[in-house]
Design goal:
Elements (H helix, E strand, L loop, with lengths): L34 H23 L7 H14 L3 E2 L12 E4 L2 E3 L13 E10 L2 E10 L5 H19 L8 H13 L3 E2 L5 E3 L6 E5 L5 H5 L7 E4 L2 E3 L5 E3 L6 E3 L5 E3 L2 E5 L4 E3 L10
Antiparallel strand pairs: 1-4, 2-4, 3-12, 4-5, 6-10, 7-8, 9-14, 10-13, 11-12, 14-15
């Protein structure tokens, strides 16, 4: 498959033995202090949202997730960027497509979507040295009322969390908001699937929990931090098993799940959602 110019490719695009940069480990956030770095993150976020909107427009009954993957890959490269998941720790495709009881990291395949399915599409792009990451859950044809309620509650939970973000706030406000909304609607929040720091690295510190932890109470949001908020709500059990592919996580009870995700940047004056439409508006 096509690739963008080398300067817009992450190191794993050409090196299967790549290891994460120790400067931006899971233990140390990558703090963006330079205005030009923050602007590059914003640009990556806007492009990621544009690509997600394009991917969502492809969702319909009868289309395969592999067809969506291939069209999205071509559009990302056409826009001068690289699909971050492709070849990342040997992930075989360019996007994640998680259908019904797949919680996350679903690998696009040749099965056609059916009316009644719900599908999360997770997009991450890399351009000019920075990643932008966002996802949304879409409906296929006619979806039943419980499925629609799950999707609506998940978006509401994310929006509630985003509204609580501010410089100096503890990360525990995210879990408080997400769990409050989820439980009010009768859904459960995955404690295992977390948000993450992002920027020059695809995944770095901080780990962003959507359920309450002691660590989240101790961690504070610092200007220059960029991270994702991406709660997964489940109709039933939040326990999961991995498929033999090592990526696809499915609920043990077959219950459906939904997820929405945005990338945010903490500044000296507030917290910006950087995965906005290219017009500057949110989702």
């Amino acid at each position: 498959m096509a690739m963008p110019a080398p300067e817009h490719c992450p190191p794993w695009a050409h090196d299967p033995n790549w290891k994460s940069d120790p400067r931006f480990s899971r233990n140390k956030p990558d703090i963006l202090t330079l205005p030009e770095d923050r602007d590059k993150l914003r640009a990556a976020g806007r492009l990621a949202k544009a690509i997600l909107n394009y991917a969502g427009s492809l969702v319909r009954e009868g289309v395969t997730t592999l067809e969506i993957n291939d069209k999205v890959h071509s559009e990302i490269v056409r826009r001068g960027a690289y699909p971050s998941p492709w070849k990342y720790q040997q992930f075989p495709k360019s996007i994640c497509t998680s259908v019904n009881n797949v919680m996350c990291h679903g690998i696009p395949d040749s099965r056609p979507l059916k009316s009644g399915d719900i599908i999360n599409i997770d997009i991450t792009i890399y351009r000019s040295g920075f990643h932008g990451d966002c996802s949304a859950t879409y409906t296929v044809g006619s979806v039943d009322a419980p499925g629609l309620a799950l999707i609506s509650a998940t978006r509401e939970a994310l929006d509630a969390a985003l509204a609580r973000l501010e410089p100096g706030a503890p990360f525990s406000v995210i879990a408080d908001a997400v769990m409050g909304v989820a439980h009010r609607h009768g859904f459960n929040v995955s404690p295992d699937m977390c948000g993450h720091g992002i920027g020059r690295e695809f995944h770095s510190a901080p780990i962003v929990h959507h359920t309450r932890t002691r660590r989240a109470k101790e961690m504070r949001m610092v200007p220059g931090m960029a991270f994702t908020v991406e709660p997964i709500l489940c109709q039933g059990s939040t326990e999961f098993v991995l498929h033999p592919d090592g990526w696809t996580a499915v609920t043990v009870d077959g219950g459906r799940s939904a997820q929405f995700e945005e990338t945010v940047l903490v500044t000296e004056h507030g917290v910006e959602i950087v995965t906005v439409d290219e017009t500057g508006t949110g989702s």
